[in-house]
Write a structure and sequence with these properties.
Blueprint lengths: L23 E9 L3 E3 L3 E2 L4 E3 L7 E14 L4 E10 L5 E12 L5 E13 L7 E9 L5 E3 L6 E8 L2
Antiparallel strand pairs: 1-11, 2-10, 3-9, 4-9, 5-8, 5-10, 5-11, 6-7, 6-9
C-alpha cells in the first residue's frame, strides 16, 4: 500500500480549477424564514442560484420546507411541491411529491416537514436558479415556513 502526502494541489493551467469526478466543486445555501399563507400556487421563497464551473457538472438540489394548516377535525388535506430550474415557466425537475396533513379529533393546526434530493444536469456554465413551489390541492389556507421551521435549499455542484 502506498500513501501520498501533499500540502497543496495546484491546477495545471490557471483558471481551469481542479475537478475530480464525483467530488463537490462548490456549495450554495439559502434559508427563508418568512411565513407565507396561500390558497394558490406559490414560490416558497427559497430560490437559490449557482454558476457551475463546468457544463458537464451535475447539481445536487436538496430542499426542505414546512407546511401547516388549521382545518376541521378528521379531515385530510393535501399539498404538492414542485421544483423548477428557473421559475415556474422553466424546467420542472421534480413534480409529484405531495404533502399530506391529517387532522386529529379536534380543530387545530397540523403540519408536515417535506424534503427532497434531486440530481440535475443543467449543461451550462451560466448562473442557474432553482425555485421551490407549493400548490395546495385541498383546504383553504396553507402556511409554509412557520415558526422555527424555515425553508432551506442547498445546491452542490458535483464534478463529472
Amino acid at each position: 500500500m502506498s500513501t501520498l502526502f501533499v500540502d497543496t494541489i495546484n491546477e495545471k493551467t490557471s483558471g481551469n480549477g481542479i475537478y475530480i469526478p464525483g467530488h463537490v466543486v462548490q456549495v450554495v445555501n439559502n434559508t427563508h424564514t418568512t411565513q407565507i399563507s396561500t390558497s394558490t400556487f406559490v414560490d416558497v421563497g427559497v430560490a437559490t442560484s449557482i454558476t457551475p464551473k463546468s457544463s458537464s457538472s451535475k447539481i445536487l438540489v436538496m430542499a426542505t420546507a414546512q407546511v401547516n394548516q388549521t382545518h376541521p377535525s378528521n379531515l385530510t388535506v393535501y399539498g404538492h411541491f414542485e421544483l423548477y430550474r428557473g421559475d415556474s415557466s422553466g424546467t420542472n425537475i421534480f413534480d409529484g411529491q405531495s404533502a399530506e396533513l391529517v387532522a386529529g379529533p379536534s380543530t387545530q393546526e397540523h403540519g408536515v416537514r417535506w424534503h427532497t434530493h434531486v440530481l440535475d444536469s443543467p449543461a451550462t456554465t451560466s448562473s442557474t436558479t432553482y425555485t421551490l413551489y407549493y400548490r395546495p390541492q385541498s383546504g383553504s389556507t396553507h402556511i409554509v415556513n412557520r415558526n422555527t421551521s424555515p425553508a432551506i435549499m442547498t445546491l452542490m455542484e458535483i464534478a463529472q
